[in-house]
Amino acid sequence: MKAHDGLYIDGGWRPAARPDDVIEVVNPADEQVIARVPAAGAQDVDAAVRAARAALPGWAATPPAERAARLTALRDTLAARRQEIAETVTAELGSPPAFSEAVHAGLPIAVAGTYAELAASRPFEEQVGNSTVLHEPVGVVGAITPWNYPLHQIVAKVAPALAAGCTIVLKPAEDTPLTAQLFAEAVHEAGVPAGVFNLVTGLGPVAGQALAEHPDVDLVSFTGSTAVGRRIGALAGGAVKRVALELGGKSANVVLPSADLAKAVNVGVANVMSNSGQTCSAWTRMLVHRDRYEEAVELAAAAAAKYGDRIGPLVNATQRARVRGYIEKGVAEGARLVTGGPEAPREKGYFVSPTVFADVTPEMTIAQEEIFGPVLSVLAYEDEDDALRIANGTVYGLAGAVWAGDEDEAVAFARRMDTGQVDINGGRFNPRAPFGGYKQSGVGRELGGHGLDEYLQTKSFQF
């Protein structure tokens, strides 16, 4: 697998300060090492931040139309390399090729296009009474991205930062650095000026922490676990710098009695199994009225069984062990294992069988904690108030779904849910709508105009 042996800093690839420190990239489908990339240290992060700081005045002063042109070029470059991106994601994440091409490559291309349009159309200056209000770039952004949607999460941070006039240092997840290197190549080909975008591959506790606490970073944008998000928030808080945190989820898929049960269950299972369950917004709790509960469990088990040879592996051995541990915990706490289980379905690769639990109660671990694997919990409720209590009864509030025969009925229930996004009767994902959570699912929003606002600060002139 092609890999750079350097870091992308100030418009070019340069050796890391400690070139012998490397990260091995493993294909999770066969457990083979496919590449090695530098493991950046604090010295490398400092060089990248200094490059971003030096480039900030020029990029911030660049007219929005020119920033939009660079984003359009970036979108086009990514589109031209769509197949290469998909193959790279498949190799380092284990995603099935069709899903890699459609989602892992296709979605970020669309998102980049939305920010090209916003950079050209959004007013960065407005009149409010006798004041002129300016919307200016927040400054140097430290972007720390996860492995589960490696290119999408990069684009969801870098594209709005570029549109706003910010400069960026990106620290991608150590499991999927090759996709980040491809992105750096695309940025270079798109003509983004030197220093505006910088890439440091490295470990979270080393490079990630150095970036989060660097005094010249004005905003830290992080996507990942709630535990790490708390740590980054504490580091940023000590320096009174801004944070945008997209964290965990335990989303509820609420099937009201009037819903098309078969459709709601089949779409719900597909949502959980997508990306091998490694999606923070996955509807991992299915709530069904007690009168139709056993029917729903049977439908869910049948639907999940079809994914046995269609989903990819988990990203690494640690994640596989974590998910297996949750499955074992579910059994130990009294949930009924309907299909799947902790046993390895293949000799090689970090695979976990699609798993469905029934007789899950709201206080069980598998109903409260984010598993991040292909595991669905089906819970029964007595009435709508009980369903709402269960749906809102976790520390998370990232996403969710409601199904009902009448759309107004579904919307009325969705308005009462403590969560950042709700899909009504299988509504399609909208890359222009704000994405982010309530409670411990995060701070701030990504995507669309709300995502752009995270990278802006305001100044007013009074006349």
UniProtKB/TrEMBL annotation:
<dbReference type="Pfam" id="PF00171">
    <property type="entry name" value="Aldedh"/>
</dbReference>
<dbReference type="InterPro" id="IPR016162">
    <property type="entry name" value="Ald_DH_N"/>
</dbReference>
<keyword id="KW-0560">Oxidoreductase</keyword>
<feature type="active site">
    <location>
        <position position="246"/>
    </location>
</feature>
<comment type="similarity">
    <text>Belongs to the aldehyde dehydrogenase family.</text>
</comment>
<dbReference type="GO" id="GO:0016620">
    <property type="term" value="F:oxidoreductase activity, acting on the aldehyde or oxo group of donors, NAD or NADP as acceptor"/>
</dbReference>
<feature type="domain" description="Aldehyde dehydrogenase">
    <location>
        <begin position="16"/>
        <end position="460"/>
    </location>
</feature>
<dbReference type="InterPro" id="IPR016163">
    <property type="entry name" value="Ald_DH_C"/>
</dbReference>
<dbReference type="InterPro" id="IPR029510">
    <property type="entry name" value="Ald_DH_CS_GLU"/>
</dbReference>
<dbReference type="InterPro" id="IPR016161">
    <property type="entry name" value="Ald_DH/histidinol_DH"/>
</dbReference>
<dbReference type="InterPro" id="IPR015590">
    <property type="entry name" value="Aldehyde_DH_dom"/>
</dbReference>
<protein>
    <submittedName>
        <fullName>Aldehyde dehydrogenase family protein</fullName>
    </submittedName>
</protein>
